[in-house]
Amino acid sequence: MECSKFEVSGLLYVSGELSDSEAREYESHLGSCEECRAETEAYRRERAAYYTPEILGERPRPEVDSEILRVCSNPKKAAAATFMPMLFLKKYAPIGVFLMLVMVAIGGYIRYHSMAADDLRAKYDAGKSTDAVAIERPKTAAIGDSAQAAAGGDEKLALSDSAASAGDSNAAFSKTRGNLDVEGVVPVKGEGK
Amino acid sequence: MVQAQEVTDDRLLFDKWLSGDPAGFSELYGRYSSRVFGFLLRMTGDRDVAEDMLQETFLAAMRNADQFDRSRSLLSWLFGIAHKRTIDYYRHAKVESDHAADTAGSVGSRLDSPEDNLANKRLRAVVHDAVQTLEPSQREVFMLRELGGVPFKEIAEIMGCPINTALGRMRLALINVRKELKKRGIDGVQ
Question: Which residues in chain B are closer than 8 Å to A47, comparing Cβ atoms?
Answer without folding.
Answer: 146
